[in-house]
Write a structure and sequence with these properties.
It is built from 10 helices and 5 strands, in the order H-H-H-E-H-E-H-H-E-H-E-H-H-E-H. By secondary structure, it is an alpha/beta fold. The protein has a single domain, classed as Rossmann fold.
Length: 217
């Protein structure tokens, strides 16, 4: 069953994570009581400049178009607080997506490694990556930032995940607050080449949108 493909967030015990996937939020990658924003609550007009308003509206429209694509990729690069995560979370249930932050990916891989070291409820991280890399559901990889993908053990599996999604043409969306050069340094040429492939991916670089959270302070 499709709900068996991805382990739960808080445990690597197989019986526990299968039971947890009967709950709606965990099926989509969220915590049980996690707040999920609505798409209509994203307001491009809250940006303080006309260029920011237009860019925020373009970001919202582009995300909606991605939901209509069959196997396309989407990469959004922009500063913190501009609404990337709001939009990604808002469309997760609408598009039957699975939502995963870069931090959470790193956390799980390390947890699998620790379970191997202690030989307790071991889940093979390569099997887990294979499952989410080949599943037909849309995958959202949010908030790829500096230091979130640990070098070595985690990076190799993240590269494997991207490669599987790419070769199997599975619809995938990624967001980052790093610049293009910073992202290349963080992830490497191989990953960047795939997520920016113009044949399958739409890359949206947001330079005019500003941190909306600063406006609320």
């Amino acid at each position: 069953m499709e709900q068996d493909l991805v382990p739960s967030t808080e445990t690597i015990n197989k019986e526990e994570h299968l039971a947890q996937f009967n709950k709606p939020n965990s099926y989509y990658g969220f915590e049980e009581n996690e707040y999920i924003p609505k798409l209509e609550d994203y307001k491009p007009q809250l940006q303080t400049t006309n260029a920011g308003k237009k860019e925020a509206q373009l970001m919202k429209d582009t995300v909606q178009k991605w939901l209509d694509s069959k196997n396309g990729w989407l990469t959004i690069i922009g500063g913190v607080g501009i609404g990337k995560t709001h939009l990604m979370k808002a469309i997760t249930k609408l598009g039957n997506c699975y939502y995963l932050t870069a931090y959470e990916f790193d956390y799980r891989i390390k947890k699998f490694r620790n379970s191997y070291d202690t030989n307790e409820n071991f889940v093979d991280p390569d099997d887990w990556v294979q499952n989410i890399g080949t599943m037909e559901r849309r995958l959202i990889l949010d908030d790829i930032g500096a230091g979130y993908i640990d070098k070595g053990w985690t990076t190799k599996r993240f590269e494997r995940l991207i490669d599987l999604r790419y070769r199997n043409q599975r619809p995938t969306a990624l967001t980052s607050n790093l610049s293009g050069k910073e992202l290349e340094k963080e992830l490497g040429d191989r990953i960047i080449s795939r997520i920016t492939d113009v044949n399958i991916s739409r890359v949206l670089l947001c330079t005019n949108t500003k941190d909306l959270r600063l406006k609320r302070r």
